[in-house]
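Closing statement on the flavin mononucleotide sub-project.
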Amino acid sequence: MFVLGLQGSPRKKGNTNYLLNEFMEAVRKRGAVTEVLHAPEMNILPCLGCGNCERKGFCAIKNDEMVTTVYPLLRRADLVVLASPVYFYNVTAQLKTLIDRSQALWARKYKHGLDDPGRLHRKGLFLSVGATKGKNLFDGMSLTGRYFFDAIGSEYTDLLGYRRIEEPGELARHPDVEKDVAALVEKIEPMFARKKILFACRENACRSQMASAFARQLAGDRIEALNAGSTPADRINPEMEAVMAEIGIDMAYRTPRSIDAAIEEAQPDMIVTMGCGEQCPYIPGVKYIDWDLPDPAGQPVEFMREIRGDIRKRVEALLGETG
Ligand SMILES: Cc1cc2nc3c(=O)[nH]c(=O)nc-3n(C[C@H](O)[C@H](O)[C@H](O)COP(=O)(O)O)c2cc1C
């Protein structure tokens, strides 16, 4: 399971970062792979409000870190953790800049009718601290978080916020943090308990991407579907992305990766191979299935559609068998 933290405080040794680190440490102990992005250190430009994403489905800003790093990690994440101090009843400007740019994902979903296959299982959590003690202290950011989590295709589950925390280091002396974090991790326990299936092909650009997308879309709440390739390509196949979009499935911002990287994220219970041959590693105790599926890369689009249909049927049958 992959957990992505988005940290908004400009104080790297501040209270927010402490809280996020405590949470990440707890999920790592439970077996998750984690990554934290510090929004104040990133090159992320503010939304231009140009409407390009609504018209064309992608952001007009092409090469900042929102495009190169954040969108792909948001698509990969099983759990996204927003973490920010309260600044004028909302998140910090740096995190808000990142949040605004998720408008491109909102547009793909609501204007282009594309469904991110991770939506069924992805969860969103909010961690925060503020100096004052008002009842409504976290209301503003909670609303912002709700719409952010919806835009990125995730369910907003909880906000853990601490009042009367001001100076750096104060939260580390708070007596409840450990217990509160443990309670949050307990709530997401069913995500860890999902059966793990790794779909592996050669380049992780077409077949294994489609298979894991169908598995996520149909059963992501009970199956952790991973994908990988024995010799991963630089990017996913654009024709595969296009034929999946024809049936309303959003594959944009997915990136190929190696079998080793996928196995590090989760030890699979089952590996479905489709063309990685003798380069697929053997892991004792893991169930192997091989699908004889030709590589559709470079073939006419009709062939890609045929393979898409074939993979969907095979995934449906597999999910039926795995209960
Ligand atoms: C620009 C700015 C605005 C702030 N606005 C609020 C606010 O509206 N309400 C509040 O309770 N605290 C506010 N604070 C205080 C911070 O939320 C508080 O110091 C917090 O502990 C900082 O977290 P950090 O150590 O992670 O940066 C503000 C602080 C700054 C610098």
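The longest strand covers residues 155-162. With this model delivered, the sub-project is considered complete and its resources will be redirected to Aim 3.
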